[in-house]
Amino acid sequence: MVGEYGTGRGGHRGGGRGVVRYVEASVLLLLAERPAHGYELNERLREVFPVPEQLPDVSTIYRALAYLEAQGAVHSTWTAGDGAGRKVHELTEVGRDLLSFWAARFQEEQTGLVRFLEHFERLMPPS
C-alpha cells in the first residue's frame, strides 16, 4: 500500500525523507474529520501539517489525492455546485488503515527524536 507518487528529493514513502509523506498523512487525517474537496483540504492543511514552514503547493495535494484514490484509500464523487462541479473526497476503510500506519510510524519517529535530543542535551548543555 505504501508507494510513491512524488518525484525528486523526498518523494519516497515508508522510510523516505522530506515532506511528501506528511502530505499523504495530513490529507488522510483531514478526511477522517469530514469529506472535502481539494481546495478545502489545501486551506485546512496548515491545521495539521507537521512541517508548517514547508507547506506543499496545491498541485502536490491533488497528486496525493489521485494516488490515494488509485490505492483505494480515498473515494471521490463529483457534486454539483455554483459553477463547475467539485470532486469531493472521503476516507475509506483502506484509508483509515493507512492513516493508522502513518500515526504509528510518526509515533516511532517521535520516540527516536526525543531519544536523540535527550542525548544531545547531555553532550551539549545550553551555555
Automatic annotation (TrEMBL):
Statement: the UniProt record of this protein carries the keyword Cytoplasm: no
InterPro entries: Tscrpt_reg_PadR_N, WH-like_DNA-bd_sf, WH_DNA-bd_sf
Domain of life: Bacteria
Key words of the record: DNA-binding
Transcription regulator PadR N-terminal domain: residues covered: 27-99
One example GO MF annotation: DNA binding
Any Pfam family the entry gives: PadR
DNA-binding as UniProt keyword: yes
PANTHER family associated with the record: TRANSCRIPTION REGULATOR, PADR-LIKE FAMILY, TRANSCRIPTIONAL REGULATOR YQJI
Protein name: DNA-binding transcriptional regulator, PadR family
